[in-house]
Write a structure and sequence with these properties.
This protein has about 300 residues and is α+β, with helices and mostly antiparallel strands. It is about 25% helix and about 30% strand.
Length: about 300
């Protein structure tokens, strides 16, 4: 990692030479904003998945937190592509990040400089070989934040303290990940993933009223399902519906499409990766590897 090159305010530099003062506002108060993006290896070279959509969300988050990035969407997009190219990555995880670049002791962000950095690292399967086997989850004792507390549609660093403390419920246990409920007690999402249920040949997923992040991979799954003739229903989902689902899976930039085969010790379906999950997985990986001509629109060459 220390030898990687990163993009900082329009310039390429060595990762190991980048640093911020201890009292930097975003380090102290969690006021950074970010995106998580993947680039995949294709026959034509490295291709970034849904770059435009990720950059647009990055700017929406910036607007929510009144951050003036000082760069256009086109400049940030090119910076992302440049980082992939200069590091020679075939596939990687990309992290654009903006932060208040001030070490003045004050909660106020007024007048504080904003800096933007972009890093990329080689990245495999988030849950390792369990992508093909399925993971086990437990329902966290912590609830998902809502928009009365913080803007849940913004990918801000501070929001993820909610995810981090919820994830601690699985630490040291047999569970791989947790599932958060909304403040009203309905299924929301994983710490960094959206969730889908399969029941009676349909896909069910929590909607915006469950205080979820409207994930770009989630949006992709909904569109793919429609193309494949699979009905998708967005609605509030009760906790007990997890246990009786035919299939369950997480989706996200890091998680991709990860089957869930056990929740709270209850076996989901037959305890194996389900047929619909497998179909969606195959379709998704065909797309990101450039094998599906219809969805090449989602890939941007680095």
């Amino acid at each position: 990692m220390m030898e990687n090159k990163i993009w900082v305010n329009g310039e390429i530099m060595e990762y190991g030479k980048f640093g911020v003062p201890l009292l930097t506002h975003s380090l102290q108060y969690g006021t950074g904003i970010f995106e998580g993006i993947r680039s995949y290896e294709t026959q034509e070279g490295s291709a970034i998945f849904r770059l435009k959509d990720h950059v647009e969300r990055f700017f929406r988050t910036a607007a929510t937190y009144h951050m003036k990035l000082g760069f256009s969407m086109e400049a940030i997009s090119e910076g992302i592509r440049e980082v992939v190219r200069v590091n020679g990555f075939r596939s990687c995880y990309i992290r654009p990040f903006a932060y208040y670049d001030s070490d003045q002791i004050s909660l106020s962000t007024a007048g504080k400089k904003v800096s933007v950095a972009i890093a990329a690292v080689p990245f495999g399967q988030y849950f390792g070989d369990k992508l093909s086997k399925g993971i086990s989850c437990k329902v966290s004792s912590w609830r998902r934040i809502n928009s009365e507390i913080l803007p849940v549609q913004a990918k801000a660093s501070g929001n993820y303290l909610n995810s981090i403390i919820a994830s601690m419920d699985a630490d040291g246990t047999e569970f791989d990940e947790v599932i958060l409920l909304s403040g009203r007690g309905h299924v929301a999402e994983g710490p960094g993933e959206n969730i889908f249920l399969v029941r009676g040949g349909r896909l069910l997923t929590p909607g915006v009223e469950s205080d979820i992040l409207l994930g770009i991979t989630r949006e992709s799954i909904i569109e793919l399902a429609g193309k494949m003739g699979i009905d998708v229903v967005e609605r509030e989902i009760h906790r007990e519906e997890l246990y009786s689902a035919d299939e369950l899976f997480f989706c996200g930039t890091a998680a991709e499409i990860t089957p869930i085969t056990n929740v709270d010790g209850v076996t989901i379906g037959n305890g194996k990766v389900g047929q619909m999950t497998s179909r969606l997985q195959k379709k998704f990986f065909d797309i990101v590897s450039g094998k599906d001509a219809e969805f090449k629109k989602w890939l941007t060459p680095a």
